[in-house]
Design goal:
The structure holds two protein chains of two kinds.
Chain A (H helix, E strand, L loop, with lengths): L3 E3 L4 E4 L4 E7 L6 E7 L6 E6 L3 E5 L2 E6 L4 E6 L8 E8 L9 E3 L3 E6 L1
Parallel strand pairs in A: 2-11
Antiparallel strand pairs in A: 1-3, 3-8, 4-5, 4-9, 6-7, 7-8, 9-10, 9-11
Chain B lengths: L3 E4 L2 E4 L5 E7 L5 E8 L3 E10 L2 E4 L7 E2 L9 E3 L8 E8 L7 E2 L3 E5 L1
Classes of the chains: A mainly beta, B mainly beta.
């Protein structure tokens, strides 16, 4: 059973701090990695995609991928109260046909305190 | 504007009364999927479709049906809804099954 694991939290950080969210996955041949933000009662919104080892930066967000250790992380710099949400990690495998799919983590709840 | 549109957004109904939740996307995506989301259980895939006339079961397909007669539409059908199908439902689409998915706004179903 391919799995994606996240700490459920809640992760609480003060406004202006760096929030660090982590995700580990079990399928060694996974090829695509995504972070989604979901506000309560709303739909998931894609915030970062990463496909190769290393860091990818987009504004205040940085995704970090380490395929050897099978983890992907999301850093949020200068955290704002509006960043308070649940962050979902999704991992795409490299299977064929019906085995190609996104595997979703359960999400980490982030609270940014003013 | 690129979007996935679900209807209705909210529905309260009774056990056994057939209902359909519609989903339409305007991005010419091949892959479409239905999820349900329940507290503590995350997103669970109900059914998915790789292309027109190609559908398959996800992780929790019992009690649901789907069809994909046109590329843009992927309705979810509950033939005989039961209270355990009370949930928040999302339709999503993407070019490929392991690529980033675009989500609709969600449908909150309550089955009494």
């Amino acid at each position: 059973q391919k799995e994606v694991e996240q700490n459920s939290g809640p992760l609480s950080v003060p406004e202006g701090a760096i929030a660090s969210l982590n995700c580990t996955y079990s399928d060694r041949v996974s090829q695509s990695f995504f972070w989604y933000r979901q506000y309560s009662g709303k739909s998931p919104e894609l915030i970062m995609s990463i496909y190769s080892n290393g860091d990818k930066e987009d504004g205040r967000f940085t995704a970090q991928l380490n395929k050897a250790s099978q983890y992907v992380s999301l850093l949020i710099r200068d955290s704002q109260p509006s960043d308070s949400a649940t962050y979902l990690c999704a991992v795409g495998n490299a299977g064929a046909g019906n085995n190609r799919k996104l595997i979703w983590g359960l999400g980490t709840s982030l609270a940014v305190n003013p | 504007e690129a979007q996935v549109t679900q209807n209705p957004r909210y529905l309260i109904t009774v056990t056994g009364k057939k209902l359909t939740v519609t989903c339409s996307q305007n991005m010419n995506h091949e892959y479409m999927s239905w999820y349900r989301q329940d507290p503590g259980l995350g997103l669970r895939q109900i059914y998915y479709s790789m292309n027109v006339e190609v559908t398959d079961k996800g992780d929790v397909p019992e009690g649901y049906k789907v069809s994909r007669k046109e590329k843009r539409n992927f309705p979810l059908i509950l033939e005989s809804p039961s209270p355990n199908q009370t949930s928040l439902y999302f339709c999503a689409s993407s070019h490929d099954s392991n690529q980033p998915q675009h989500f609709g706004d969600g449908t909150r179903l309550s089955i009494l």
